Structures are given as C-alpha cells and as structure tokens.
Amino acid sequence: MGCAYSRTCIGEICAPREAKTRDTSQSARARHFRVSSPGPSNVQELEARDESNEMSSTRDAEVGINRLSRVSAQFLPPEGSRTVKVPSEEYKLRYSYLSQRGYYPDALDKANQDSFCIHTPFGTSPDDHFFGVFDGHGEFGAQCSQFAKKKLCENLLRHGKYREDAVEACHSSFLTTNSQLHADILDDTMSGTTAITVLVRGRTLYVANSGDSRAVIAERRGKDIVAVDLSMDQTPLREEECERVMFCGARVMTLDQIEGLKSPEVKCWGDEEGDDGDPPRLWLPNEMYPGTAFTRSIGDSIAETIGVVATPEIVALKLTPRHPFFVLASDGVFEFLSSQAVVDMVAKYKDPRDACAAIVAESYRLWLHYETRTDDITVIVVHINGLTEDAGTGLANPGSIICSCVPQVVEVSGLESPSPLSRSGRNHRTRNDFSKARLRAIESSIENGQSWAPPPLNRKTWEEEAHIERALHNHFLFRKLADSQRHVLLDCLLRVEVQPGDVVVEQGGEGDCFYIVGSGEFEVSATQEDKDGETTRVLQRYTAEKMSSFGELALMYNKPLQASVRAVTRGMLWALKREDFSGILMSELSDLSSLKLLQSVDLLSKLTILQLNRIADSLADLSFSDGQSLFDKNDGPGGLYIIRKGSVRLTFNADAVRSLEVCSLQCDDSKDNDDLPNETEISLEKCEGGYFGEWILLGEKTGSLAAVAVGDVSCALLTKENFDSVVGPLGKILPGNEI
Fold this sequence. Notes:
This protein is of the alpha+beta class. It is built from 19 helices and 30 strands.
C-alpha cells in the first residue's frame, strides 16, 4: 500500500545546472524548516556549544570515514546474515543482501552497475547504521555508482550538522556528492546513478531517495503485514515530476513517440493496459538524447540541464513494534514486483538471507518471462527484532517530522510554488506485459521453432527422480516452474561422478552449474582474512540425506564463488547448467506449445500474443484412454477442445452444422452436407492439432454431438467462463466487433 506524505519537492530543483546560484539571503535561510528555534537569551551559550561540537564532530567524522572501508569490506558470516545492536533503544537489526549482475544476451560480460553499502555502525555512534543501494546507468554507470557509494557516506559523516540534524545532512550530502562527480575526471555527461539510502538512528529511519530505486517497510495491521513505501519513484509517471522537468525544458516522450510510431502530442502512458516496456523518457529539445526514464539522479550532467537533479526526497519514520522489517532494492526488483509482493516474500522467511535469494530469483524469472534480458538486481533486507513501545513524545530530532505510523517527507528548503504529494499517492503499478523484444522472440519461436533445445535425455530411475523432486520441492529458484518445465528440468540434469578429494567448485572461480547431492559427502570451506592472516575454515557439509544442493547463484550470473566444495567420499551429483536453466525460463516450453495450438484455431488467430498468452494460462489439460467418451450427445462439449495427442471421433447430426455460424465440424465434402436430411448422422475424425467446440466461446450451442477417444488422447480444454474472465467476451474483442 502507499503512504501519505506532506510535501514533496525539496530544495531548489527546477533550475537547470548552469542557471543555479547560491542563495545566502536572510529570506532563503528563513525558509529552512525548523520545529523550534532558540530564544535570544541562550544564543551565546548555543554558539559556544556549537564551536565545541564542531571540533568534536570533525574528529568523529574522520574516525568514522577511516572505518568505512574496513567495515564495508567485511563478508557476511557463514550463515549468510549479520546481527547488530542499537544500544540506546535495546533492539537489534539482522540483515543480509544480494546483488546480481543482469543478463544481457548481446553483452554477456557487462559489469554489474548496481552497488550497495552497509555500515554497521556508521561513524562513531553505535546507534547509527547506514544502508544504501546505488543503481548506475550509462557507459560509466558502474564507476558512477561506486563513486557515489563512497563519497556520499564520507560527505554525510563530514557534514557539520550530521549529529543534530540528519535531514539537512542527508540533503546536503546528496548535492555535494553530485557536485563532486561533476568535477571528477570520471565522465558523467551521459552516465550517473540513482541512490536510495536509509540511516537508522535510534528508533528513527531517515530515508533519502534520488531516482527510481525504492525503500519499503512492513507494518503489522491486525493479522495482515502491509507494505508501506518509504520512497516514491521519481519518474515522469509522477505528474508533478513530469511537470517539473517539462518546465525545465525537457521533452517527455516514449521511444515509440520519438521514432514516429505514436503521436508526440498525445500522452500515451499511465492509462493504458500496459506500457510494453516503453516508459516515458526525457529528451533535450530537438535532440535524441539523453532518454532517461527517471527525473532525479546523481551525475547525468547533460540531463541536469533539463531538470534531472540530485536533490533527494527525504522521509523520516519513527519505528514501532509493528514494523518487523524494511527492504531497499534497485528498480530491477520493482519493475515486475510490487512493494506488497516483496513484503509478502520477506514475511515467509525467518532468515533475511533466504528472503534476499527468493526476491532476486523471482525478479530474475519475471524479467526473463517478460523481456529478453534482465536488469541488475540488488536487494537489502533488514529485520527489526526486540523493539518495544516508546513512552517518549515522538519527536526524535529538531528539524524533522517524525510520525509513529505514517512516513513524512521532510522539507529542508522550500520552493515558492511547492508541489505537494497527494495523500493517496503511491508508486506506479508494476509491469505485467511483454516487451516488444519479448513479443518478437515469442513470435519467432512460434514460427521457426525453439531457439534453445533441451540436451539429450538423461534418463533416471524413479527413485532418483523422487530424490531430485524432494530436494527441489521448496527451493526458491524452482518453486514457480510449471509442471512441464519441471519435467524438462529433470531431463536436463546431468550425472557427475566424483572421487574423494575432487574439487567440485573452487573459491574465487566462476561456476556455471547448480548441483544436487545424489550420494556421498561434500565439504564446504572458505578462506577468509582475520587478524592472523588468511584462514581456511570448514563451513558445513553436504549429504544426500540432508537433500543438499548448492550453486544456485551460478545459474543466474558468473560472479566469483565465495566458497569451495570438495568431495570427502566417493559420490554422485546432479548438475544443471546455466544455459539450460535460462533456456527453460526463456523458452517457456509449455506456453509456446499452447500458443501454437491457440493460433491454429481460426476463431482465435486474430488475437494478439498478449491475449493468447493469458488464454494459455487458463487451459485445462485432459487425458482419455482408447474408447473413452469425452462427452455424449446429451451433454455436448464444455468448451473449445484442442487435441495435443491422439485422435477423436465425432458423431453428430447434419443439422448440428447448419445451426452454427462458426463451426469446425466440416469435412472435405462439406459442400454436400446441405443436401443431407437433418437426421443423417455424420462421423468425423479429428487428429493431433485439430480442434472443435469453438462455437461455445461465442455462446452458441449445438445438440446431438458426441466425442470418443481413438487411442490415448490428450486435449487442452478452454471454457467460456475462463476465456471471458481473462480477455473478455470473444464477440466484443474480435477485430471489427469492437464496441
């Protein structure tokens, strides 16, 4: 669910970069938001205290900055998650993370442009903890995200008011980091990074966002766990953001509009059934660049001239026992998963490591379902444990608005005409339609066959198949596979025999296989640095009895492995190659066969791939043995039958054909049917790929029709109820019949 906000535009963000001037007037300073201000009698005392605090803050900042590189370089412990304390409020944070490089068929070696940082503690205070996700873009996007990750933390710790005014410090640090990137030798003319950060201070979260990554917190409401957005994606899909960048001179159009496929004068996004992966983008007047799909970022100096600024929206939230966890993730997660879907997934797992893995795997699967590639995907999950009710007043810091239930956007410096967010404002819906590239790939597969073919069949005994099924039963990578895809996966698994001492995977190497332990014992070890130098430790042991499996991340990317696996005894593994796993996901074997069948039905041949895909999900598979009746003359067909395997003999009276406007009950000599008496019985055999009963979808009926299986038969059944529920009444959506 969305959350309510007070104000949105923070700072002077409408002016292009070269037009900005520093406003140091008294009226500008007066616009800074404050909850309270000191009286005249204690001004001198506060000034003296500020001078002392400034010297102390400088020392603390340098100590904290020196700690950054050491803390951020730490590996997670073997169990995959880490727990830290927040002493002042006597609760704990347990966190884990996962960053996956995107899959780009045309650039298999493209670097992961996402980066993240976790500093626990942040600076010198044990009550401060910092989490950030940075999503780079452009030719030098990876370098920009790494630059911002480092500099933003340093600037925040060095800010003079970091300890007493986190809001102003966050705001200033984003802008300073942006200026530093502009001044650096790194080329940010057409490259940059988005940034979403969360500073935990005591029981308060400070969330700063510039771009379209997102932070979400879970909130218990009765028996439900509800997602509350702590940030709103800054894209042209937000009306106030769109108006702001257009005021700065940006043209806002989709690629279709730029290429002349759609009218540039008509807003063609936001209200349609789907944007098919073609969101509104920002363009310079009379130019074909930069084409950013976001309205704020760090870097992007050319886009800054048309309103793409680094100014963050900052949210402050007071934590309560009703908040079990929060999540930060790049837009690679939220492209196809809603905030609520992510929260629901995290809620299923006690360990944040498992939640991260599940979110990444599902995001990866959906990308390959709707696209021909995947984006870089990064997620941080933080559990909040042991927090009790607060008896305080609710205000944590001067200069910020804190509400125990509703996150508030905090105003740092106002605009003459601020644009407040609607209280019903929420992040734009997720995509659920194929991109044009994916549609072309599907159409090509239908016409020309599969681009990926399963390897030769690797036969297994029923005991082996049962063991594999048990090992994969609740595995996050395979839980959403269709039955037909699981069958193909079983066939793709290769038998690998090992001897004692054999190294299956080696730390630092690049693996491309997922393994299931079929027999034997395997040792997992890792070499890690400690105060005594490098030490190799045994982390755990894998056996068939434990239903052990490993290497799942190797199915998604070729990041260097963090541990080695060695055979302790003689044994056997089942191996699944990355290319076969991707092939299973991308080819969608079951869907393609169903799409081919549906396109063969004359009545459905004019429907779009998107419509046919939805219909394919509603097909029911039926099986019949030789001589078994599919239906008799009293019942008639229950819908459209498409024969996948075998043959079906139909018997009906001649008048059954004449009464139907659309009918597949025609044989080669159908021209003679008109001369037959109504009571004449006709026999017709339909073979594999044939169909009948399509008139049911139009609401027509016929009597005196029976069907019997000839040999073993498999059919797909589509009922009118299922058809209408997914695409609407057929009579209204057929070309030429639109209302």
